[in-house]
Amino acid sequence: MTLRAQLLMLQVVIVLTTVVGTGAVAILTQQHQLRTNYQDRMVGVAQQVATNPVILDAFDDPNPSEVIQPITELISKSSGIAYAVVMNADGIRYSHPDPAKIGKHVSTDPQEVLSGDTYVGTQTGTMGTSWRVKVPIFNPGREVIGAVSVGVLESDMRNEYLANAAWLFITIGIAAIFGVVGAAWVTVVIRRRIFGLEPEEIAGLLDEREAILHGVREGVLAVDEHGRIALVNDAAVRLLSLGGRTGLVGTLARDSLDAALVEMLEGDGAEQSLILSGERVLLVRRDVARIGGREIGAILILRDNTELHTLMRDLDGAQGLADGLRAQAHGFANKLHVISGLLELGRVEQAVSFISHERSGGALTRLAGQSGISEVEVAALLLMKQVRADELGIDISVSDESVLPALAATARGEALREDLLTITGNLIDNAVEATGAGGRISVTVALSDGPDSGLLVSVADSGEGIAPQLREQVFAAGYSSKAALPGAVSTGRGIGLTLVKRIAARHGGSVSISAGLPTTGGPADARTASPSGSAAGGTGVGARITVRLPVRTGEPVAAPAQHAGVHP
Same domain for 276 and 312? Predict the structure, then answer.
């Protein structure tokens, strides 16, 4: 059965049931009211006859019917009842609609009323079945001397009822017709609103919609015109880290989403932006949802750009390392030319002296003396940053306090390694942006044991520093004090420090800002700088950002000593 037929049938059944039920109640009510009215009328007539003084006096006459019969006929006609029969204490009639029945015994048992009780009920007598009332007649001494029976024929009441109910039946029929027509019209309207689809087709479309929405890699989040979440797919839940929350649909977006996303939702028109949500860099596109030209809400399309930014950063680093190797090879070629020239001139001793006075190695041996950093990936990151900084005329040195064993090849160790690379890279990138040519940067990376065990990353620079009133604001997403320098690597403007703070918060750690390196002095000043403040004898300018990540007691994050890895 089609949906249209089902809707029509159900509505017709409901309409007819309601109309017929209401009509039946109205009919029964009217019938009851008719009987009640007749009963009240018959009781009044019976009481009037039983207390009429003329009738009471006539009981003592030789022929009572001569007085009583005319009176009862007059009362019956004026009150609209079928009859009024008066009898004596022996049940002999003194009046009757049929004069031939006067003087004869009544056809029904009169004992109940002659005993002094009033009777109301239906009985069949000489005139047929009637609804009657019987009232005893008392003399002045309160003795029963007779009774009066007043009745209405059931056939007369039925005819009167049917005559009065004709309009009721007509009204019920008209209501039923209008109800059926209205049901058919409602069925047509509903079919139009659901585009003529059957229930199984609607269910199929919903299943397909859910499968598509939850199967795409991009996150989809929609809000209605009141700012409540109307739709969110699995990818959006994952990208926005909403997995621990239930019942998102129907809740206010501002209660579940980051402020940057809420601000974007409340904007006008379509736009696209990079937004940091949690620890993910998301490319978010906002579109307006419209139905029939009316705006009903907004839709956010979320794409994870974290991996893309990481790849771009790694690619930029590899390019920088290649450029550094090329520059280093060029420098070695110049030195070889000098040595070759001295040898051709026969200046062997000068050639030997030139070789002995040259530094061994190049950029890639910069960390040779820093045997405390045994984590290869961190060492490689520092080498790459040093090469890129050399191109900008910035000196990056690693503090002698740096002690970092190779991290354990466990899930916790891998996660800590990834967070350490992100923190170190972002802090150095921000320091490079804040430091001009001739500037200095000092890096300290240490994993300490003991009661205050934890991982410490400290990066100090000799730039302009960060004013105390801005030391909280710099961690806000999107905040940036200057444009990026050429060649500087960043995960996005105003995102690096925010990401660092969120990673520290996830570990239960802290991020602090203090004075950095002085603007005067050589690289030695940078190497002797302490993570807790500026270099000795410095002027207190620049900025130092220190990140501390606690390590729980007994947590295996470092590899055993025999597998500590290679030193850079």
Answer: no
